[in-house]
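Feature request, filed as a ticket because there's no other form

It would be nice if the structure record came with a short human-readable summary line next to the C-alpha cells. Right now we just get the raw output. Example of a typical job, pasted below so the devs can see what we mean:
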Amino acid sequence: IYQDICDNESSSNELPRYLVHRCSNGSSASSLSFCPYEDVLGVGHERGFISLLAPGAGEPNFDTLEANPYQTKKQRKHAEVKQLLDKIQPDMITLDNSILSEIDRKTFIRKQEEKRNNFNFIKPKELIIKSDKKKGKIGKRLARKTQIRDAKLKEYLQQQQLKRKKTKN
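Raw output as currently delivered:
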C-alpha cells in the first residue's frame, strides 16, 4: 500500500510505501477489496483470505448528506417508503372510520344462506364413485369405513326428513 500516490509527482520506483505485507508461503494476491470508513483491506490469495488493517487509509469523514452510510438494503427500502409517505398530503392518508365500523348486511346474509344451502346439499348416489375392491386388511378397513359413513348419512337424512315434516305440520 502506497502513501499519497496522487500527490507525488515522482516516478513509480520512488513512491513511498505505507504498508507492506507478504502472503504466507510465497502465494500471490489475486483480489483486493477495501471497506470504506473502516480502514480494512481484504486480500484474497492462493491459500485463502487475509484482512489487513491500514490505519488512516479510509476517508475519516463520511458523506454527511447521506443519513446512514452503513445502512442495509432493508433499511434503505424502509427509508425510501418513509420519504414517499412524507411527500403525500395527510388528508389523502386519512380513512373514514364510520365506513370501517359498518357491516355490509346484504353480503353477510347472502354468505350465511350460501353456507346453509351448501351444508344441506347431498350428492346423489350415482355421483359417488366407489374405488376398486381391495383385498386383505385394507379392503376390510375400507369396507368398514364406508359402512360407517353410509350409516351416518342415513341417520342424517332421516333426521332432516323428520325436521321437514315437523315444520310442515
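Something like this underneath would help us a lot:
The first helix runs from residue 73 to 87.
The chain has a mean pLDDT of 77.
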